[in-house]
Amino acid sequence: MAPKCYLFISIMSSGGQLGRMLAASASLLNVQVNVLDVGADAPAKQIIASSSHIDGSFRDKEKILELASKVDVLTVEIEHVDVDALEAVRIAHPNVQIHPTPSTIRLIQDKFAQKQHLSLFAIPLGPFQAVEPTPDAIAQAVNDLGLPLMLKSRTMAYDGRGNYALHAVDSQSISSAIDFLGSGSRQLYAEKWVLFVKELAVMVVRGIDGTVISYPAVETIHKDNICHLVWAPIRLGGINEDPELPRKAERVAREAIEKGFEGAGVFGVEMFLLEDNSLLINEIAPRPHNSGHYTIEACESSQYDNHLRAILGLPLGSTRMKVGAAGMLNILGSSNSSSSMSSSLVSFSPDLLIDKLTYLALSTPGASPHLYGKAQSRKGRKMGHITVVGSSDAEVRQRMAPFSSPARTLPPHPLISIIMGSDSDLPTMLPAAQILQKHFPSVPFEVTLVSAHRTPLRLMSFAKSAAGRGVKVIIAGAGGAAHLPGMVASMTGLPVVGVPVDSKSVSGGGGGLGGVDAMWSILQMPRGIPVATVAINNSTNAALLAVRIISVGQPHLITQMEEYLNRLGDEVERKISVMGETGWGEYGKK
Ligand code: ADP
Ligand code: MG
Q1: Residues 6+ apart with CB under 8 A from 521
Q2: What's this protein's family per the entry (predicted)?
């Protein structure tokens, strides 16, 4: 028999999507869900029928106690619940489990208390300090932490609504900040402005038995303090980024949860990446998180599946990605509207622009639109999201391009990297680039110089960062004592194809052995570190072999390769027929 279990999902009037997706996961396991939220049509209530849903606020103690009287387990989709009410549940209903624990929720819902608590465990944080909502205190905080200064409301802050970036210390600027942050009615604190190069997030899951696992680190891109885009897994931008970064981010996030907070369930850990490759924790959410939506389509078990499994004491699911890459775009309300003006047969939401985005997603391979069933659209309100999956970061970015403006979509990362020791090798390596460009336009590639002997440090960072940048195959051309392909292969798990270059033929200098020197050098790799070697100067075959390697799991590339082979065959057929018509003697004179 399925466990008799109800979940308390408390929902703010501006939210409800996390509870909705959690309820969807619960429905697959016959887990009964009871939702506490205002109104009968709250997003989570829409998708799971129950006569026991409760109409009320997550800050209403009586309603929370009423809900607790009907359930075995309570959980939250938002941290701003009435924690005193949860403590009262403990006394009134000692058999009801609450995950995460009320003490964790209490610590986390006050961002300043959360940071103070984390600092006890030497978790990396930027400088911060309490500040009274008065001009003098704020001026003093500027004195201590500098400008710009991030002023934050300690409680009830989400989607950037509790943040104010103070850029000047004149009285007008300070009074605008105070007005924005509750006109003195809210407790504030100040953070030193963090000059981050990227924002990351890691979803951490803790089971009832204390097991802690994590999802791959993702990159989050915020606009006006609201998350717009998520790229999963995080791609390293340049060869100077630490190749260990994805694993380091997971480690830092897991440690923060292990050391800092009790209770089972999912925790969303937001982080800043600094120029020097160090990480700072920004904030932690004691629940599934916006930047983990992608896990529904992209991971073996979603964050919602795992939150349920964790709080019910069931085996945790695998957090591994089951696709090469994913992107997630939040669909934000474009205007204030409550009824659809769409003239199309089906209208998905009260917002015309959202209808358009949804149609676009429905006609894009790998794209899954999620709409949250909110009857009212407001500018900036989270109305839904679109997850796009693909075999590689390049494919996902290509598929996402119609949804997000060029400013928000970076150029695709290369799948194939063509490197050579010297620009004198370029004429030999150029055919590799040309054949990719001509016959395989969907395969992005890069061409660059990396010298095993003259730039050994660049060689090391190139090889170590390649996989993290999304590269799938490296083609390395080298002449003479051709160490480049082998050295690269010794520092990355990616396949490397070596092209022996006849350096004499291209530069008029070099080895002078017709490329045989480079050929033996690349071919005779020691056991354990293979390099695929093509014929001397045959970079074309290296490119074709690289496409064949990445076509594993990408049937359309196999089709493209077969079309290419057919074109080669057609060309020979054409020559046979011309030779037949003109006679071999005439043909041979051409
Ligand atoms: P919310 O609870 O609304 O998500 P956050 O504290 O996470 O609030 O802030 C939202 C966004 O504001 C962050 O994702 C980041 O882009 C920016 N931000 C927050 N704190 C800082 C800071 N100290 N320095 C620079 N930018 C910040
Ligand atoms: Mg945040």
Answers
A1: 478, 480, 481, 482, 483, 486, 500
A2: In the C-terminal section; belongs to the AIR carboxylase family. Class I subfamily.
Quickly tell me which residue has 């730039």 as its tokens. 455
**Distance from the alpha carbon of residue 431 to the mean position of ligand 2, in angstroms:** 48
Kindly state if the Cβ of 79 falls inside 6 Å of ligand 1. Answer: no
Domains 17-99 and 416-550 share a fold: yes
Domain definitions of the chain by residue range = 17-99, 127-192, 197-409, 416-550, 559-590
Give the angle 450-522-546 at the CA atoms, nearest 5°.
70
Confidence of residue 355 (pLDDT cuts 50, 70, 90): confident
DSSP 86-139: HHHHHHH-TT-EESS-HHHHHHHHSHHHHHHHHHTTT-----EEEE-SSHHHHH
Beta carbon of 127 within 6 Å of any ligand 1 atom:
no
Domain 197-409 belongs to what topology? Answer: D-amino Acid Aminotransferase; Chain A, domain 1 (3.30.470)
Please report the atom of ligand 1 found closest to the CA of residue 128. 23
Domain range 127-192, CATH class: alpha beta
How far away, in angstroms, is 282 Cα from ligand 1 center?
7
Measured between alpha carbons, how far is residue 580 from residues 289, 568, 572, 576 in Å?
70, 19, 12, 6
pLDDT, tens digit, for every residue of 24-37?
999 898 888 888 98
Cα separation, 64 vs 9, whole angstroms: 10
Please work out whether the CB of residue 428 comes within 6 Å of at least one atom of ligand 1: no
The Cα–Cα gap between 409 and 418 comes to 24
Most informative mutation of 282, 290, 332, 381 for ligand 1 (most atoms within 8 A of CB):
282
Average pLDDT over residues 237-266: 91
> Which residue's CA is minimally distant from atom 12 of ligand 1?
225
Nearest to 200 by CA among 277, 129, 265: 277
CATH 3.40.50.20 fits domain 17-99: yes
Give which of 81, 320, 75, 325 is closest to 219, Cα–Cα: 325
254 Cβ contact partners less than 8 Å away, ≥ 6 residues apart? 202, 204, 212, 214
Q: What is the CATH number of domain 416-550?
A: 3.40.50.1970
d(CA 126, CA 384) in angstroms, rounded, equals 32
> pLDDT category, 510, cuts 50, 70, 90?
low
Q: Around 237, how many Cα atoms within 13 Å sit in the side-chain half-sphere?
A: 9
- By alpha-carbon position, which residue is closest to atom 17 of ligand 1? 225
Edge-to-edge strands, sheet with 8-10: 8-10, 34-37, 54-55
Per residue in 288-334, pLDDT (tens digit) is 999 999 999 999 999 999 999 999 999 999 999 999 999 999 999 88
How far apart, in whole angstroms, are the C-alpha atoms of residue 358 and residue 347?
Answer: 10
